[in-house]
Specification:
Blueprint (H helix, E strand, L loop, with lengths): L1 H10 L2 E5 L5 E7 L32 H6 L7 E7 L6 H11 L5 E7 L2 H7 L7 H9 L6 E4 L7 H6 L4 E5 L13 H5 L3 E4 L7 H10 L1 H10 L11 H60 L4 H17 L47 H9 L1
Parallel strand pairs: 3-4, 3-6, 4-5, 6-7
Antiparallel strand pairs: 1-2
Helix pairs in contact: 9-10
Length: about 375
């Protein structure tokens, strides 16, 4: 039941959300998965290490019964086989689909031996023990069958009490047959799964072959010997030379990048300095024009000073008609420059009887009349 709940959680990711009109709509957004622990603590057991099955006669369940759900003590036994060389996410997704075919599933995975694989398919990167162990540690696997047959026989299906066989629906031609699962499909025991596009063991091997030099140099750099990599002496020296050339190129690229960063920083600083200089220049020119321009403050100051000077040195204008003596107001007394308020009046000279007198504008007028 724990596996059932986890598979239901993984498969049902769509969330329902309320629209603006109040109706529920299917959303494409994925919800976050609640934190839980569903992984197994031990690898899946091998089939030949398990206790013998129940002595009762085995009766297969139908597809309808399997989809409807079986009792906990009677899970649907699904079998999936393969080579599983360089175990990758495509393999894991196929096993996940097989595990999630029915609500209560016991997944049995068969792995072919090296002899059968090399005979019918070709050489593998991983040996059979490594491939067995990789499948044991997949979380969806409940049981592993070592040295699985290339073609499923009725005896093998009955021995492992298999209800359904899971595999992708593409015809698998091998061992002189157009489709090795043809008799399984005719018996109604076939449950199709979907392949994961873009990933396969052949794709991984193609990448390695395509970039062979890169991976050889990588392993030489990590300490593997040329003998371990089956590389000749000349190729070993060539790869070491390429490695040194690549290091020099990397250093040159680093220097170029640092130079570009330095030039960029200098340009940014120079642009800032030019902008500040332009701002200060505009401010200086504005202040200069405000002071010394045609309508500047200095011109107004000069005009004002000139007007004051002209006003100070220009004589007063006489009135057009001079008033008569009677109309004139008495003129204030005028003292000679050598008389001052602070100096005492000069004493009369002894040789003359003249006396000091005040000169006024009235006296001048009288003298003129006489």
């Amino acid at each position: 039941m724990e596996a059932q709940s986890s598979s239901t959680l993984l498969l049902s990711r769509k969330r329902r959300r309320d629209g603006s009109n109040g109706e529920a709509e299917e959303g494409e957004r994925f919800g976050k998965i609640p934190r839980c622990t569903v992984g197994l603590r031990h690898p899946a057991p091998f089939a030949d290490e398990l206790e013998p099955a129940d002595s009762k006669a085995y009766k297969r369940v139908s597809m309808e019964e399997a989809k409807r759900g079986t009792p906990p003590e009677r899970p649907v036994r699904v079998y999936a086989d393969g080579i599983f060389d360089l175990f990758h996410s495509g393999h894991a997704r196929a096993l996940m689909q097989a595990k999630c075919l029915f609500p209560n599933t016991h997944l049995i995975v068969g792995v072919c031996s090296d002899d059968l694989t090399h005979k019918y398919k070709g050489f593998t990167v991983m040996n059979e023990d490594e491939r067995y162990d990789a499948i044991r540690h997949c979380r969806y696997v409940d049981e592993v069958v070592r040295n699985a047959p290339w073609t499923l026989t009725p005896e093998f299906l009955a021995k492992h009490r298999i209800d359904f066989v899971a595999h992708d629906d593409i015809p698998y031609s091998s061992a002189g047959s157009d489709d090795v699962y043809k008799h399984i499909k005719e018996a109604g025991m076939f449950a199709p799964t979907q392949r994961t596009e873009g990933i396969s063991t052949s794709d991984v091997i193609t990448r390695i072959v395509r970039d062979y030099d890169v991976y050889v140099r990588r392993n030489l750099q990590r300490g593997y010997t040329a003998k371990e990599l089956n590389v000749s002496f000349i190729n070993e020296k060539k790869y070491h030379l390429q490695e040194r050339v690549d290091k020099v190129k990397k250093k040159v690229r680093d220097v170029e990048e640092k130079s570009k960063e330095f030039v960029q920083k200098v340009e940014e600083k120079s642009i800032d300095l030019i902008q500040k200089w332009e701002e200060k220049s505009r401010e200086f020119i504005g202040n200069f024009l405000q002071m010394f321009g045609p309508e500047g403050a200095l011109k107004h100051m000069l005009k004002e000073g000139r007007g004051r000077m002209l006003q100070a040195i220009s004589p007063r204008q006489s009135p057009s008609s001079s008033p008569t003596r009677e109309e004139r107001s008495p003129s204030p007394t005028f003292r000679l420059p050598f008389f001052s308020k602070t100096s005492p009046p000069p004493s009369p000279p002894h040789h003359s009887g003249a006396r000091g007198y005040l000169i006024s504008e009235d006296d001048d007028d009288e003298d003129d009349e006489n």
